[in-house]
């Protein structure tokens, strides 16, 4: 039994070995057949190249023949010229396809060489005729990249074609024909010189002049040092180091000249920058003809805060143009957090319920149906920071097919603890809009100076790593990398209509304002209540008889009210309400002493309603100074003077231009311009600058690596590593368990558990 088993095993082994050898022989045979076929194809393609040259010559000859009748005398002259050319062309074909040439090609054929043909004689003969006034040394080597997989053949033989008698004869006949009929019109105003020029240009097209090989001088030491100093900017910005004042000459012009100089040197060497370790150029490609804009914010209605209201209006008015699809991504809070954040204990059982509330609120104020999508991401409320912190990777809630343009409302806030996909890798263009002066709030806390120092550098870090462009609403915000200052907010159209109604009443002689002054804002000390009470207490006697109504709710309400009562201030505290409420229309003066705001929405709304605004001379109010009804003060004594001036006079009606500047239409126009969104929406490549130099197009962004991009990528990678450590997150103030969303978020938003969504494979 054992012998039979061994015999069977040996038979199976022999059969397997024979099968393996047969299979290997078939593969060798198939490979050899494929190589032979490839060699034959290459030989045929080389002969086809010669034949195509002959066809081009004949096409030029036939194209010169008119398609309609012409005088016989003129036609015969041209036909004689063509007949003399025909034998020369036939001779040219015989020489070009000579057997000895094909033999030498096959002898020198290699599987990994380059195919080169020396056409210096052809090129010199033709180009010398076409460019009679130009004489240049050219090597005349034409590379034929006709084969794939890196397999090329090289053939180069100096003087192989002798003196090229056919070309010399062709050149001579062209010159004789041009001299003979230099001043005679052939037909219909068509001159023989035009015919000759056509033949010359056609010959030039066959033996195309190689790209200009003029050498570009290398970079000198001064240029290298200038580029190094300029590229050190990211490091200096990250460290908070201020550089010297810019020169009198436009620095952008100097930088562009240096960039294109370096680009030209790199291009002359054949170098093409394909991206570095941190960069990823495989971005979303627009396939449906419409761009996609995703607006990500840190708050949502019914929380009446600037980061909930303004992004909502921005989404509505961006979608109104119908040039792009818009998605608004807002945080979803579990019911326990909703009770802490939303007013009047308002809660929602599902995202769909909250979305309906948001849309109804919006449509009541803008007067049209906004066509945009509302999505939710998991968030948790931080009592210490009084803000919503994202839980998990926020970017994953924008599908890859819609990941085109991202607008990050409060980019530093969104990315403090962001542990996920880098925004600038997933999106083609990322714009950050800074709403809050966090440093001003932090300085008021315990150990505020140290905390502000750390937060300042963290904000620099995350905005540089995750944004292409940053918009600051005013100079009251932190000076961040890649940032420009521009007010990109507007006011609710409802306030502009109230202002128009007030102006109409005044024109009819009716009293528009029956009340005095008021202040409206969240009742926390940092929102201007400290400054307000200090001013009223210091000048209680100067403002004798002045009464102020204050509307607001907040964490510090009890303390603020008790302080005002203790100082015996003439202040009447009322519950917070919507600024568009009818009870507020009759006030003539809006008082806003806050210096912590970046751009006070309530100030813009009061101006839109035609009221006086008394506010501090502060960078946050810079945009409002152009309005005549805005009265700014720099000292406490000046505050008293401005209040008395407002009480004694009537506000001026807004002009149409002033009303437009306050509108969301104007705000969107400013946003599109300053965020470079207009260029992106027009499908221009981000960061690409083109310049024509010596007849060649030089693309700066493609031709040269950017140290700034490498720094940004390194910062993003380091941030990703640090935010992945739960201990470090807790040390910096993160809410426990916010690196991923929790079970309640999975249930509310119908999400897969984090371990299923992002599995971790290991031992």
Automatic annotation (TrEMBL):
It catalyses: a 1,2-diacyl-3-O-(beta-D-galactosyl)-sn-glycerol + UDP-alpha-D-galactose = a 1,2-diacyl-3-O-[alpha-D-galactosyl-(1->6)-beta-D-galactosyl]-sn-glycerol + UDP + H(+). GO terms for cellular component: chloroplast outer membrane. GO terms for molecular function: digalactosyldiacylglycerol synthase activity. Keywords: Chloroplast, Glycosyltransferase, Membrane, Plastid, Plastid outer membrane, Transferase, Transit peptide. Its EC number is 2.4.1.241. GO terms for biological process: galactolipid biosynthetic process. Residues 517-652 form the Glycosyl transferase family domain. This is Digalactosyldiacylglycerol synthase 1, chloroplastic. It comes from Durio zibethinus. The gene is LOC111296148.
């Amino acid at each position: 039994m054992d012998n039979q088993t061994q015999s069977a095993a040996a038979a199976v082994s022999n059969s397997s070995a024979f099968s393996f050898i047969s299979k290997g022989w078939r593969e060798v045979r198939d490979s050899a057949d494929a190589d032979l076929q490839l060699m034959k194809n290459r030989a045929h393609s080389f002969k086809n190249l010669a034949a195509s040259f002959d066809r081009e010559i004949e096409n030029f000859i036939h194209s010169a023949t008119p398609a309609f009748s012409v005088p016989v005398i003129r036609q015969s002259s041209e036909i004689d010229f063509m007949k003399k050319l025909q034998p020369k062309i036939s001779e040219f074909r015989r020489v070009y396809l000579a057997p000895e040439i094909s033999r030498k090609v096959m002898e020198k054929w290699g599987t990994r060489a380059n195919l080169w043909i020396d056409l210096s004689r052809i090129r010199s003969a033709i180009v010398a005729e076409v460019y009679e006034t130009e004489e240049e040394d050219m090597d005349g080597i034409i590379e034929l990249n006709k084969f794939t997989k890196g397999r090329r053949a090289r053939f180069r033989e100096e003087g192989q074609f002798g003196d090229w008698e056919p070309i010399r004869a062709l050149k001579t006949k062209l010159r004789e024909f041009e001299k003979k009929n230099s001043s005679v019109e052939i037909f219909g105003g068509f001159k023989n010189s035009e015919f000759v020029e056509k033949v010359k240009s056609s010959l030039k097209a066959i033996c195309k002049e190689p790209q200009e090989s003029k050498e570009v001088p290398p970079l000198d030491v001064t240029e290298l040092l200038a580029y190094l100093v300029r590229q050190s900017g990211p490091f200096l910005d990250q460290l908070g180091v201020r550089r010297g004042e810019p020169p009198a000459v436009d620095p952008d012009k100097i930088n562009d000249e240096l960039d294109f100089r370096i680009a030209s040197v790199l291009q002359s060497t054949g170098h093409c920058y394909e991206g570095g370790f941190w960069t990823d150029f495989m971005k979303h490609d627009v396939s449906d003809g419409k761009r996609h804009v995703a607006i990500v914010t840190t708050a949502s209605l019914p929380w009446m805060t600037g980061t909930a209201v303004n992004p909502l209006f921005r989404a509505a008015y961006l979608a109104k143009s119908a040039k792009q699809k818009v998605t608004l991504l807002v945080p979803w809070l579990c019911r326990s957090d909703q009770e802490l954040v939303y007013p009047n204990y308002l809660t929602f059982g599902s995202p769909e319920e909250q979305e309906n509330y948001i849309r109804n609120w919006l449509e009541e104020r803008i007067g049209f149906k906004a066509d945009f999508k509302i999505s939710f991401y998991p968030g948790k409320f931080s009592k210490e920071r009084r803000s919503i912190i994202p839980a998990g990777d926020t970017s994953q809630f924008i599908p890859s097919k819609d990941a085109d343009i991202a607008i990050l409302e409060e980019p530093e806030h969104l990315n403090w603890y962001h542990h996920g996909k880098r925004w600038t890798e997933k999106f083609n263009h990322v714009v950050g809009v800074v709403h809050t002066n966090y440093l001003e709030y932090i300085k008021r806390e315990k150990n505020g100076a140290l905390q502000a120092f750390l937060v300042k550098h963290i904000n620099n870090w995350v905005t540089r790593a995750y944004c292409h462009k940053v918009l600051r609403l005013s100079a009251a915000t932190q000076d961040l990398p890649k940032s420009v200052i521009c007010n990109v907010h507007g006011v609710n159209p409802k306030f502009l209509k109230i202002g128009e109604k007030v102006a109409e009443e005044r024109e009819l002689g009716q009293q528009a304002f029956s009340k005095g002054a008021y202040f409206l804002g969240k009742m926390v000390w940092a929102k201007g209540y400290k400054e307000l009470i200090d001013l009223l207490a210091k000048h209680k006697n100067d403002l004798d008889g002045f009464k102020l109504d204050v509307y607001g709710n907040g964490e510090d309400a009890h303390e603020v009210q008790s302080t005002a009562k203790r100082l015996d201030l003439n202040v009447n505290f009322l519950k917070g309400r919507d600024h568009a409420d009818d009870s507020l229309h009759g006030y003539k003066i809006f008082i806003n002493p806050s210096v912590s705001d970046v751009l006070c929405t309530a100030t813009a709304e009061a101006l839109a309603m035609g009221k006086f605004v008394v506010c501090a001379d502060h960078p946050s109010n810079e945009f409002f100074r152009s309005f005549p009804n805005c009265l700014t003060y720099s000292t406490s004594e000046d505050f008293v003077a401005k209040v008395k001036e407002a009480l004694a006079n009537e506000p001026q009606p807004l002009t149409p231009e002033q009303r437009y500047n306050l509108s969301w239409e104007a705000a969107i126009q400013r946003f599109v311009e300053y965020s470079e969104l207009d260029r992106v929406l027009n499908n221009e490549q981000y960061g690409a600058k083109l310049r024509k130099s010596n007849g060649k197009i030089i693309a700066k962004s493609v031709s040269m690596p950017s140290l700034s991009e490498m720094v940004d990528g390194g910062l993003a990678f380091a941030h990703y590593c640090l935010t992945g450590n739960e201990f470090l997150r807790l040390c910096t103030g993160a809410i426990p368990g916010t690196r991923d969303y929790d079970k309640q978020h999975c249930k509310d938003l119908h999400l897969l558990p984090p371990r299923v969504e992002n599995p971790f494979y290991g031992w």
